[in-house]
Amino acid sequence: HVQLVESGGGSVQAGGSLRLSCAASGIAASDHCMGWFRQAPGKEREGVAAIDSDGSTIYAVSVEGRFAISKDNAKTTLHLQMNNLKPEDTGMYYCAAAYAASLDDGFGQDEYNFWGQGTQVTVS
What we know:
Blueprint: E1 3-7, E2 10-12, E3 18-25, E4 34-39, E5 46-51, E6 57-59, E7 67-72, E8 77-82, E9 91-97, E10 114-115, E11 119-123
Parallel strand pairs: 2-11
Antiparallel strand pairs: 1-3, 3-8, 4-5, 4-9, 5-6, 7-8, 9-10, 9-11
C-alpha cells in the first residue's frame, strides 16, 4: 500500500521561505519519478518540479531559480525548498509518485500513479 504524506506548508510573507516534505511509504523514492504539483483557487493543478530516479530535475518557469526539489533516498522522502516566495505561489501543494523511473513529460499528471492529500501554502 503506497502512501504519500505532505508536510511543511503554512503562511509566510512574500520573500520568505518554506520547505515542503513528502514522506513516502510502500514505494522507494530512489526508484521512481516523483513530483510536486500545486493548485491555486480557481485554477487548474500545475506542475512545479519533478525529479527522476537518476536525479534529473525539471522546474516550472515560474519557480526556476527559487525552488529546489530533492530526494532523501535513505528516508524515502521528497522535499521542495521554496525561497523568495511570491503571492502567486499560494496554493495547495501535492506530492506525486509514478511507477516509472523517469517520464518523458515530468508534469504529465496522468503519468503519476500516487498522490498525497496536499499541504496548503499561503504567501501574503
